Amino acid sequence: MPDSYGPADYPTISRRERKKRDTRRRILEAAMQLMADTPYDQVRIEDICVAADVANATFFLHFSNKSALVLAFNEEVAGKIVEQLALIEAQAAERLKKLLQIYLAEWGTHSHLMRQIVLEFLSQPASGASFNEVSPGLLGVVASIIRDGQKSEEFSNRITPETAGLALVAAWNAIAISWAKTGDTSHASEAHRQTLDVFLEGLLARK
User: What is the 8-class DSSP label of residue 158?
Assistant: First the structure.
């Protein structure tokens, strides 16, 4: 089992920070539930706050607007990936493939909603740059797997884990944007897998 998913990577957090995370998660879950039953445009921030039992001001402490929920969703997905990968004992390349499988499954579960959120996000001023400030959680997991692969000499050390992880996740973000515009889920899923294949060919150590 790789060291990257051990307890040391998740130090004890303060009660205040734990409460903050719980509130953020509650807001996100309330928003996702509302948007699953009601068209995205018809869900108001006030509705989300009522469902989450928080004040409007609390919402804006955690999210700048509704479209910012896409980044929070990515962070939630990253948390699920960490939990599931901790149960898997496999080489780094296989763990990256499993990571992508979990990522696509989570987005697929909420595909209609996530497409609306991404399109709304992209319609905001300067949102493109923000969208490409990739999910820190997802980036951290990818970089951690790459680091493990380099330590075991499965992957080459030519590229730093952080740079390699950023390149891969940014490419996936670009595919997500294209998918949101076209709605072609099948093509997007295949593009994600092909991108990982190309990426792994570049990372693998040369024998």
Answer: S
